[in-house]
Amino acid sequence: MIAIVGRPNVGKSTLLNALLGQKVSITSRKPQTTRHRIMGIDTHENRQAIYVDTPGLHIEEKRAINRFMNRAASSSIADVGLVLFVVEGTRWTDDDQMVLTKIIQSNVDCWLIVNKSDNVKDKEILLPHLKWLGEQHAFNKIMPISAKNGKNVTQLRDMVNEILPESEFYFPDDYITDRSSRFMAAEIIREKLMRFTGDELPYSVTVEIEQFMLAENGVYRINGLILVERDSQKSMVIGKGGQRLKTIGAEARKDMEHLFDTKVFLELWVKVKSGWADDERALRSLGYGQDN
């Protein structure tokens, strides 16, 4: 297995989707979009690469949900044969250093993936920074890429496949992820929430699928419950005249129909559940902590 690790918002999920050639991990411009460990399965000829997309590792653990995400990411490093450590251009933060420390402690092979390198306009800055990065650890490889634009992604995929041993497949060759359709539906709704709401909300919202049923006519009937922590957040999700919730539902339904390759009937509700993100029992009931 290959773990994709790094601090929040460096493009780990975008990289996983690019490596697979299709979307299995939700993305947004906001940090900590990924909350669960998600496997992406790339079967090519007689080799199968199993990538593990992880939540962004971060020093500050204000709430229980942050601790759960850090545990899920940290445990992934110890469970794999190769780590792809993703950093962002010429930026290096305390969180990056913390991730590197965990990698060094795990004594696992590590490739440094410098994402968003195309955003660095002054290449005279990039080259010395790459040299400096190489001095921080004995990385097996250092590779600048752009996951969003596809630069060097195919080369990275080929390099991973070259080091994989020929063996029996762990998953059937038509699998692209280990996650259930129910889980993917909840993640799609959460992605649309993050894209269509303000900066405050994403850290106080989660989604629970209350019904996931395939009807006799081949239509998926899905009921999603959106949990927020305050009444003001509920109003933010619903929007004026319910318009924002309609937009979130319509965009989520389109993605689900593309993913499931069938019609989807989606209904969404919003409920206030105060303190859910700092309640370990509530988090476990919502599926957090199962990755640890």
TrEMBL record:
The superkingdom of the source organism is Bacteria
Query: How the protein sits in the membrane?
Result: Peripheral membrane protein
The chain positions of domain Era-type G read 1-166
Instruction: Give me the residues that bind GTP, please.
Output: 6-13, 53-57, 115-118
UniProt keyword terms in alphabetical order: Cell membrane, Cytoplasm, GTP-binding, Membrane, Nucleotide-binding, Ribosome biogenesis, RNA-binding, rRNA-binding
Annotated region G3: the residues are 53-56
Positions of the region G4?
115-118
* Biological processes, Gene Ontology terms: ribosomal small subunit assembly
Report domain KH type-2 positions: 197-274
Start and end residues of each stretch annotated as G2: 32-36
**Which GO terms fall under molecular function for this chain's record?**
GTP binding; GTPase activity; ribosomal small subunit binding; small ribosomal subunit rRNA binding
Q: Where is this region: G5?
A: 145-147
**GO CC field:** cytosol; plasma membrane
Annotated region described as G1, given as residue ranges:
6-13
| Binding partners and assembly | Monomer.
Show the NCBIfam families listed in the entry.
era (TIGR00436), PRK00089.1 (NF000908), small_GTP (TIGR00231)
Protein task = An essential GTPase that binds both GDP and GTP, with rapid nucleotide exchange. Plays a role in 16S rRNA processing and 30S ribosomal subunit biogenesis and possibly also in cell cycle regulation and energy metabolism.
Name it: GTPase Era
Species of provenance: Paraglaciecola polaris LMG 21857
User: What's the source species' lineage?
Assistant: Bacteria, Pseudomonadati, Pseudomonadota, Gammaproteobacteria, Alteromonadales
Q: What gene is behind this protein?
A: era
